[in-house]
């Protein structure tokens, strides 16, 4: 993998609410450690970092504004010079100005990490690919939760994660491990 000098790291929804036990069983317990490794390397290299924060329209959401769940986890708090994108739907491109910001900065390559793989990560990576960005998803720097399928069968977080990555790889994005990305920084 060749990583451009201005490749952006997009960290999705690393907010306090995502740690709520009511969201259920998750996969990839090491995901946050992988995200932090990427974030630290991005900061050292001077590449752009974009933090995405979900502001839910639903009072039942862990990301409802006005309560602590909407706040960034301290370890993922944006630093000076890093961009903040706030969204109200899973896709970080929808009604946020993200595309214009990236194009204005001449950024064409994106590394996408965060949560949830089947939701905000997948929808953001799909749009990135559809808009012509070179999108990379670090599979071990994302996680999701157990989820029932359309017919009511409970699918494990591992299966949901794998299916989402399978949906993305080769069509909308390239899915790799964080080690391959770190080796290219």
From TrEMBL:
Domain Isochorismatase-like: 7-158
Top-level taxon: Bacteria
InterPro entries the record matches: Isochorismatase-like_dom, Isochorismatase-like_hydrls
Keywords per UniProt: Hydrolase
Source species: Pseudomonas ekonensis
Keyword set includes Hydrolase: yes
Protein name (database record): Cysteine hydrolase
CDD domains registered for this protein in UniProt: nicotinamidase_related
GO molecular function annotation: hydrolase activity
């Amino acid at each position: 993998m060749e990583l451009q000098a201005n490749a952006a790291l997009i960290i999705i929804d690393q907010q306090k609410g995502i740690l709520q036990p009511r969201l259920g069983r998750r996969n990839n317990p090491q995901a946050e450690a992988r995200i932090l490794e990427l974030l630290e390397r991005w900061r050292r290299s001077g590449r752009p970092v974009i933090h995405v924060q979900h502001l839910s329209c639903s009072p039942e959401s862990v990301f409802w504004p006005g309560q602590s769940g909407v706040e960034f986890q301290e370890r993922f708090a944006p630093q000076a010079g890093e961009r903040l994108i706030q969204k109200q739907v899973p896709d970080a491109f929808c009604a946020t100005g993200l595309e214009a910001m990236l194009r204005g900065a001449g950024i064409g390559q994106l590394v996408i990490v965060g949560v949830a793989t089947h939701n905000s990560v997948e929808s953001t990576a799909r749009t990135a690919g559809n808009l012509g960005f070179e999108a990379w998803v670090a599979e071990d720097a994302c996680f999701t939760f157990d989820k029932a399928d359309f017919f009511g069968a409970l699918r494990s977080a591992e299966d949901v994660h794998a299916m989402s990555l399978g949906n993305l790889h080769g069509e909308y994005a390239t899915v790799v491990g964080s080690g391959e990305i770190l080796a290219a920084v």
